[in-house]
Amino acid sequence: MKLKLRYLNSKRAFCYCPFHASKKGNADLEICLSGKWQGKYYCHGCGQSGYVTMDVLNKLLKKQKKLGFKEPTAVDFNSLVEQYCDTYDRHGIKEPFDVSCIVGSILDIGWDGSAWTIPFRNNDREVVGIQRRFPDGFKCMVEGGSLGIIIPGGVLDHSIPLYITEGASDLAVVLECELQGIGRPNCNAIEDQIVEFCEPFKEIIVVADNDAPGLNGAMSLVNAIPLATKVIIKTPKPYDDLYSMYQDVELKETKKWLLKN
Fold first, then answer.
1. C-beta separation of 164 from 171 below 8 A
2. b vs e for 243-252, b when ≥16 Cβ sit within 10 Å of the residue's Cβ?
3. Quick one: pLDDT at residue 60?
4. Are 33 and 12 a contacting pair, CB within 8 Å?
5. Is 188 in contact with 213 (CB distance < 8 Å)?
6. Domains of the chain: which residue ranges?
7. If pLDDT is split at 50, 70 and 90, which confidence band does 174 have?
8. DSSP states of 206-219
9. Distance, CA of 198 to CA of 123 (rounded, Å)
């Protein structure tokens, strides 16, 4: 298996996945470089998993050693979010969050000088990790964190539909349409956490990316949600995702599509 490395830190390597062609060019294939699962890979885009050969692993470890990475120290993610979140409307680069500054503030989206920062939260809304998203589309985590739900500030109303999107940019569009929602970090992660978070809601709309991984991940999530909850899947055909639709049509048309049964 030939891999093209995109990013490397002290614990993980991110490569372009050889098993599927990512339309967004994301380096979805994550390889564990230490601990119990050393050598194991998992693609957050298509779900392929397995172990790399020792030759591949040794090359990555050699590069890691050359770069001189150190183990991460404890990170106060809540303080880090406060440091980033006030800078959303100052960096002058709108994509991939071409939404109002109010929405950016509700999501605590920030800018650290080279990448957007997106907080991931547990079900108590505590920040457990921060994703960095670069202008070329590459995404990685601030070291020491973990995946979680993208949860906007404010109170969520359990009596009206909750939209679940794939990623922060689609969630930003939902909020721009004055609807309520949460974001998954990708199409197939932290399913149990999302199901638990959604328990009080009577109606859920899963907005899936218009590709096989997105649809499969949405279907898996729907099957995990208790039958007592009304759940539907929407895909913004012919667009790749909701944000692509939002960029191409007026906001009111995007909202009309979201509200359509």
1. no
2. bbbbeeeeee
3. 93
4. yes
5. yes
6. 4-67, 77-259
7. very high
8. EE--SSHHHHHHHH
9. 10
